[in-house]
Write a structure and sequence with these properties.
Methylamine Dehydrogenase, Chain H, 47% strand, 407 residues, 3 helices, mainly beta, 32 strands
Length: 407
């Protein structure tokens, strides 16, 4: 086919050469080549559209295109200093979370999402006044512990609702869209349902001897972890199970005896942690034990991040030790703290601690503090070092330059 096209052009050129000036023949030949390129590009574009439609049709959803225009109405100049003040209704049961750059406020019988300009981009009525949410994955999961349903949202709408015969204990969202829900069944003490990104159940863990306390799906969606326990004689018989749900095979089963199991989960590199009331065990992405850390103080607060876990331990939050461990179990930070720690964040190797009336930041230069009004319920830290605090009725931004080092 291409040889015939170019042969036709050659014959056309020879014919024109006999009757037209050289300049006209030259430009006419260039125009023909551009016409060929144009039609060739149209053919390639048509083939590309066909291939995408056939092989990627599951991902061609209206929401995916809506994300392209998510911030089209946001004034970059007005929001150059991060989020505008956001106003909402809340109470002591209100849950705050950050979901794909938007502030999620769950409480007062509603789910509200606010964008960077302070605009309410989603408002959805809920069946419960004191629901909770998990916003750490691809989807936003909203549920009330003790009730029988979990609702799945994205930034624009409710996508799906899962209903169960027995109360939901907890739900966890994974980065790849998979998620896990802990509940029970008629003949089992505990059941954990693992779903893929299309809300299809792909694996179910069941036990008639143990209670599941935590579950998680790996960032790549291939593995699921379940932490469970049975209590006897004042101790806990604990079991950590990891299963490859893509290959339907067991990857790890560890049975131990000790303190109360609290939480299990995956870091961004797919390595695994297991937190107990008396220590933490770290596993690499092949689920070989990497490091074990033990402590005798009570856990007052813990926060899990993409590459590590932060603990506040001690008799009280006002007389405690703050520790940060990397995903490989290495202790990267330890400091005694005399203020009551209400919230904590780790970003770019900087630790932020919220107290009643101040925010403390520890970086390579030491500790710096910024004053903050009392009564903050939640703290969020941005990449540029600014901090947003959530109060009962509105947010307030603390600028990076407000932090001062003590002399």
């Amino acid at each position: 086919m291409p040889s015939r096209i170019f042969s036709h052009l050659k014959d056309k050129t020879e014919t024109m050469s006999a009757y037209l000036p050289y300049e006209s023949v030259y430009y006419e030949r260039i125009a023909d080549y551009y016409r060929i390129i144009k039609y060739g590009m149209l053919v390639i574009l048509a083939a590309f559209v066909l291939i995408v439609t056939v092989f990627c049709n599951r991902d061609l959803r209206p929401e995916n295109f809506r994300y392209l225009f998510k911030y089209i109405d946001v004034d970059p100049v007005a929001t150059s200093a991060n989020y505008k003040d956001i106003y909402y209704n809340s109470n002591q049961n209100t849950a705050f979370a950050f979901y794909k750059g938007d502030l999620a406020v769950v409480g007062d019988g509603k789910l509200n999402l606010y964008n960077i300009a302070g605009n309410n981009i989603l408002s959805e009525s809920l069946e419960s006044d004191d629901a909770v949410c998990d916003a750490d994955g691809k989807y936003l999961l909203v549920y009330k512990p003790g009730e029988n349903a979990v609702s799945v949202f994205n930034s624009f709408s409710k996508l799906y609702t899962l209903k169960y015969d027995y109360p939901v204990i907890s739900a966890h969202a994974g980065d790849g869209g998979g998620f896990a829900v802990i509940t029970r069944e008629e003949n089992y003490r505990s059941s954990v349902y693992i779903y893929n990104s299309t809300f299809k159940s792909v694996y179910t863990w069941r036990s008639n001897e143990k209670y599941a306390v935590s579950s998680a799906v790996s960032p790549n969606g291939k593995n699921a972890a379940v932490l469970s326990y049975a209590q006897a004689d004042g101790t806990y018989a604990r079991e950590l199970t990891v299963r490859n749900i893509s290959k339907d095979k067991s990857e790890l089963t560890v049975a131990t005896v000790g303190g109360m199991p609290i939480k299990t989960g995956f870091f961004a590199d797919s390595s695994l942690y297991c937190l107990y009331s008396d220590g933490i065990v770290f596993y690499n992405k092949n689920f070989d034990e990497k490091e074990s850390v033990y402590f005798s103080e009570e856990i007052q607060l813990f926060k899990v991040f993409s590459d590590g876990i932060l603990l506040v331990t001690g008799k009280t939050r006002a007389d405690s030790v703050v520790r940060y461990y990397g995903s490989n179990g290495e202790e990267k930070f330890t400091k005694s703290f005399q203020y009551s720690v209400l919230d904590a964040k780790m970003i770019d190797d900087n630790i932020y601690l919220l107290t009643d009336g101040a925010i403390y930041r520890h970086d390579e230069d030491g500790f710096a503090a910024a004053k903050a009004e009392s009564g903050a319920n939640k703290m969020f830290v941005f990449d540029d070092g600014n901090v947003m605090l959530c109060y009962d009725a509105a947010t307030k931004l603390i600028k990076k330059d407000e932090f001062k080092f003590s002399k």
